[in-house]
Amino acid sequence: MPIARALLSVSDKTGLADFAKQLHELGVELLSTGGTAKALRDAGLPVMDVSEFTGAPELFEGRVKTLHPKVHGGLLHKRDDKEHLAQAKEHGIPPIDLVVVNLYPFEQTVAKEGVTLQDAIENIDIGGPSMLRSASKNYASVTVVTDPADYPKVIEEMNEHGGDTTLRFREQLAVKVFLRTSQYDAAISNFLGQCKDGTRCNFTVSLPLEMELRYGDNPHQKSALYGDFKGCFSQLQGKELSYTNILDIEAAADLILDFVRPTIGILKHTNPCGVGQDDEDLRIAWQKAFETDRQAPFGGVIVCNRPLTEGVARIISEIFTDVIIAPDYEPEARAVLQKKKNLRIMKMNDAYLSAKKAPVIRSCPGGLMIMDRDHTALGLDNLESKVVTKRPPTEEEMRAMRFAWRVVKHVKSNAIVYAKSDRTLGIGAGQMSRVDSSRIAVWKAKEAGLDLKGSVIASDAMFPFADGLQAAIEAGATACIQPGGSMRDQEVIEAADAAGLAMIFTGHRHFRH
């Protein structure tokens, strides 16, 4: 049977007027509430208020308006059940064939700074989820829409099927609704279930399957991606993504967002192996990053915080690269990169800036661990007051330390970075002892033909002994930035003073396990 009556009640009014107009042109009667009804009337459409439909007024500042037998009876009664139809007729309950509801913006409300408990509670939707669930339960007869992106599909279905929608399509929409309402309830329980110390007394997550990944860490391991990764990153070309690709993309994006100046980073297995900056020419920034390590970028990830230019694209295309990430691409750059069909080209969307603030979720035996994301390089304010050595750093050393500190934050611990103010020179990552990371960074710099004299060294965590710093002094470093906090800090400071090295304690650790 063609859809004859629709109930529309939405907070997000994106595309609503056009959708309702097309429904009206298809002969659908429109029911609505509050602000949605006003928006439809402002668009010149005939609308019946739900209060008129039910014969009951909206109560308690709108808290009760659709919680009525005539609404839920119109949604839930079976169209092929004689007893249901008789009861509907006896009680004057006409069918409602289409429900269009999106919920009060609870998630957006609680994400605001300083949100009050009262504001949160008033944004808990009751009638909306109730209608969505009633309509979804009866998807055999009722079409239910909670995502504005589905409006065109509904109209297409109705045009193709004589004003009705197919059972398969209604089923897909119903599944989408139950996922949405579960996410909504999870957001509410997570917010209200916070303990006094700020942790969550419970944690619930419900995410849709987004895509099957090529494989996990290894080809014999199956892997799948859930959530809205595509909202954060758009894949413009290339092979399907794997589990490790996703990890690399996240690590690269996190790194590049710590820099404001035009910057290019090269990563391998989530570790930076070169970072370079240049205010005039991205090709020079690339060259600085690439010169840090000419071997590791093979099959690696390249990330840029500016639209990728044709010049950089031509240079990059000369080596084998797995993934490139940028906020945008010049058309000429895309034309160059399209010749490498397997190369994954990713566009970082603005949505990732918000997603970056979300907590880190990791599985563990029997459950999950939740951790605040380490999204800001800490300890860089008032560096002049954090000097612990006799000699303060020069202005150039200070700039280099700020740069190195932002890089070392993204290197797996134990992490050591040698750098100038606009480029990395040597990186040591993931070693069991900090002195080994320092020695590896020195060795890598020598392999690349880079001179460490006059460089600065950054350590993601404290030097437990003076030997790690001594390796840096012997390599030619003249300044050091580290968190401090070791029982032997004084020994490390004395070693720095004996060599005339300037050192800053940030007071913050950026350990990455």
From TrEMBL:
Catalyzed reactions per annotation: (6R)-10-formyltetrahydrofolate + 5-amino-1-(5-phospho-beta-D-ribosyl)imidazole-4-carboxamide = 5-formamido-1-(5-phospho-D-ribosyl)imidazole-4-carboxamide + (6S)-5,6,7,8-tetrahydrofolate; IMP + H2O = 5-formamido-1-(5-phospho-D-ribosyl)imidazole-4-carboxamide
Keyword Hydrolase attributed: yes
InterPro entries (UniProt xref): AICAR_Tfase_dup_dom_sf, Cytidine_deaminase-like, MGS-like_dom, MGS-like_dom_sf, PurH-like
MF-aspect GO terms: IMP cyclohydrolase activity; phosphoribosylaminoimidazolecarboxamide formyltransferase activity
Keyword presence, Hydrolase: yes
Pfam families in UniProt: AICARFT_IMPCHas, MGS
Pathways per UniProt: Purine metabolism; IMP biosynthesis via de novo pathway; 5-formamido-1-(5-phospho-D-ribosyl)imidazole-4-carboxamide from 5-amino-1-(5-phospho-D-ribosyl)imidazole-4-carboxamide (10-formyl THF route): step 1/1; Purine metabolism; IMP biosynthesis via de novo pathway; IMP from 5-formamido-1-(5-phospho-D-ribosyl)imidazole-4-carboxamide: step 1/1
Domain of life: Bacteria
E.C. number(s) listed in UniProt: 2.1.2.3, 3.5.4.10
All copies of domain MGS-like, residue ranges: 1-146
This protein's UniProt keywords: Hydrolase, Multifunctional enzyme, Purine biosynthesis, Transferase
Family the UniProt entry places it in: Belongs to the PurH family.
UniProt note: domains: The IMP cyclohydrolase activity resides in the N-terminal region.
NCBIfam families: PRK00881.1 (NF002049), purH (TIGR00355)
The protein's name in its UniProt record: Bifunctional purine biosynthesis protein PurH
